[in-house]
Amino acid sequence: MRSVCGVVGKWMCAALLLSAAAVRAQEGPVRGPALPPNPLPYDLLLTNGHVLDDKNHVDMSGDVGIKDGKIAAIGAHLNPKDALKTVDVQGYYITPGLIDLHTHVYTGTGEKNSYAGDLSVMPDGFTLRNGVTTIVDAGSSGWRNFDDFKDRIIDRSRTRVLAELNIVGSGMRGAKYEDNLDDMDGKLTGEKALKFPGVIVGIKSAHFTGPEWKPYDQAQIAEDIAHIPVMIDFGANRIERPLLQLVESHLRPSDIYTHCFSGLRNEQDPQTGGPSKALLVMRQRGIYCDVGHGGGSFAWTVAKPIVASGYKPDSISTDLHVGSMNNGMKDLLNVADKLLVLGETVPEVIAQMTSHPAHEIRQEQYGNLSVGGIADVAVLSVDHGNFGFVDMYNTKMMGTQKLVCQMTVKDGKIVYDLNGLSADMWDATKHSADERQARRWTVFSERPFGATRGQRFPTSTPVNAPPQVQDKAIPKK
Ligand SMILES: [Zn+2]
């Protein structure tokens, strides 16, 4: 930069630096000069929270220390002097970063009416603001288009995006593809999954309307090759292939049944309103019950009596897509709120969004706050008031608690901060932490102070800046 500054002059150079800083501010994490070493035990310390970590049986008031993207310590009283940056989260829960086991994020292909296209959403727009750091795309792509999905979304997202591979080679591109028995190949699907261990974490069958068992049996073949679980969206309700038979003889322990509370495929006992025999067999055999709320898979008339009978979901998930997120579903915390309405506790719903889904996809490195483990963290508050929670039939149940994501930490860095818990006041005269080290604990730009301020933010109006115009009332015609 020095030689450029010599040629173009000091003010032009300041403008270049300014525009570079603006780009960095938009992009978040930056490449730059090496950070000075941090001799302290922690980069970031969250203090005075209520730590909930189901996997490690932690449910206590305390602090979480983070260093180099890993959990460094959890304790009742960690010392703020041991951290570069301390954030007081009093009154809030500190939980593992949430995992959403069922989403659709293969967007950007331009295909209409397709979950491998316009019906999917961009992950980062919907996850971090909800405390979600890891999601699983549930079968939007198959072995034919997974590489495109990976390049387009997985490799470019700040959110950790994992995938269940559709048993249909072309993925979720609509009925013409998803009902095509000739494109269901367990061997090719399993072999594709083997090439991406830890990224392809499951096999998905969905939306099938035919009477055959082929999609489910091909999924088992893929499971045997790749040793990853199968998740079933059971599609159309066909008498030729009843749910009871699926869970008795076409699924195995540790497979996952999603859309558990839709009531559309005999999940509910018509006499008692409680769980059907199929749901009971599922639990007996160790097949997991996943919510997968979606646009049409959570009915109060189904979920209320089933949960009241003591049958709680193993995992809470959204089935996020453009149709569900503006409908009853909203987001992952809204789905969790619904389980709170049905009598679950905050620690229970947190477990169902952290350690449980991590276990289901056999990725136990996520969804917990183990010392030495990945520092994905959600800071959540519980608002109290009168809230309406809407189901798939646009009916609502009222509740008094609402989970709100205050802050999200991914790989040790703050990536979302609703109320600026980590921010200094705009008119502060000095930083509360060493600005030069900020990249160790946040992806956000810190306002420069002191000697660097004059260089990077000249106070004079830059040359060629548009003139400042006063707003004038537009006369009505
Ligand atoms: Zn889905």
From TrEMBL:
SUPFAM superfamilies with a match to the protein in the record: Composite domain of metallo-dependent hydrolases, Metallo-dependent hydrolases
Keyword entries, A-Z: Signal
Gene3D superfamilies named in the record: Metal-dependent hydrolases (3.20.20.140), Urease, subunit C, domain 1 (2.30.40.10)
Region: Disordered, residue numbers: 449-477
Top-rank taxon: Bacteria
Entry-linked InterPro entries: Deacetylase_Atu3266-like (IPR020043), Metal-dep_hydrolase_composite (IPR011059), Metal_Hydrolase (IPR032466)
Signal sequence, renumbered to the chain: 1-25
NCBIfam families: PRK09237.1
Protein's name in the database: Amidohydrolase/deacetylase family metallohydrolase
